[in-house]
Specification:
The structure is a single chain. Helix content is about 65%, strand content about 0%. It is an all-alpha fold. It has a single domain, classed as Up-down Bundle (Glycerol uptake facilitator protein). It has a two-stranded antiparallel ribbon. Helix 1 packs antiparallel against helix 2 and helix 3 packs antiparallel against helix 4. The chain is globular and about 55 Å long.
Length: about 250
């Protein structure tokens, strides 16, 4: 159970800090209002670093159903644990989004635009073209999962020449944080780079359920893009990773 709890807590923390930076930049009368895209992408990268650092030693810090599925397809995670991890991730994302809403409640009240309010929960495309949007989510997640599969720990030799891997502790989270930062800066402008089904679906559910004054619909006609696009991207990443290996 500790691994499932860690995935729940880690994903909730990811959303509190990740959606939190979007709320800080987007909502009216915050100190970070109109901070811009660099602030958002940096905030998400730091959110990933924090969440992974807190949970890596307990659950492996997947915090993303696409990563969980990709690792399972690559033989690095047990198939029977997938459902538990994904449920924990989605529930954690719902709770994280509710925390952000409660934290910024006065600023949601001060923000009249319904699209802006929704943007602090879930993603939407800059230009609505569903096949193109799907491809963007596939590409972003392919890069993320390929990088995760390719990370390696440094090795050292003992006096008797036995080689062993050296853990990096919390510094190991820097790898994935930098990749997420890079994806956001380079590829995030088209769809908001969900690259994580739980990150989009959980907060979208929260947006639909919360009594947000002046909110719009939760755009369920688009919701399958940030769910299935990342899953396809993760599976393709495994195929490319295996193709590149000697």
């Amino acid at each position: 159970m500790s691994a499932f709890i860690a995935e729940f807590f880690g994903t909730a923390l990811l959303i509190v800090l990740g959606n939190g930076v979007v709320a800080n930049v987007s909502l009216e009368k915050t100190g970070g209002h109109k901070g811009g895209w660099i602030v958002i992408t940096a905030g998400w990268a730091f959110a990933v670093f924090t969440a992974v650092s807190c949970t890596a030693q307990i659950s492996g810090a997947h915090l993303n159903p696409a990563v969980t599925i990709g690792l399972a397809v690559n033989g690095q995670f047990e198939w029977e644990r997938i459902a538990g991890y994904i449920v924990a991730q989605i529930l954690g994302a719902v709770v994280g989004a509710v925390v952000v809403y409660a934290y910024y409640y006065d600023h949601y009240e001060a923000t009249p635009d319904a699209d802006t309010k929704m943007s602090t929960f879930c993603t939407s495309p800059a230009i609505r073209n569903l096949p193109f949007n799907f491809g963007c989510e596939v590409m972003g997640t392919l890069i993320l999962v390929l990088a995760v599969l390719s990370f390696s720990s440094p090795e050292m030799s003992s006096p008797d020449q036995v080689r062993f891997k050296v853990g990096l502790g919390s510094l190991g989270a820097i790898h994935v944080a930098i990749v997420v930062f890079s994806i956001g800066l380079s590829l995030g402008g088209t769809t908001g780079y969900a690259i994580n089904p739980a990150r989009d679906l959980g907060p979208r559910l929260a947006h639909a359920l919360l009594p947000i004054r002046g909110k719009r619909d939760s755009d369920w006609s688009y919701s399958f893009i940030p769910v299935f696009g990342p899953i396809v991207g993760a599976i393709l990443a495994v195929g490319l990773y295996r193709l590149m290996r000697p």
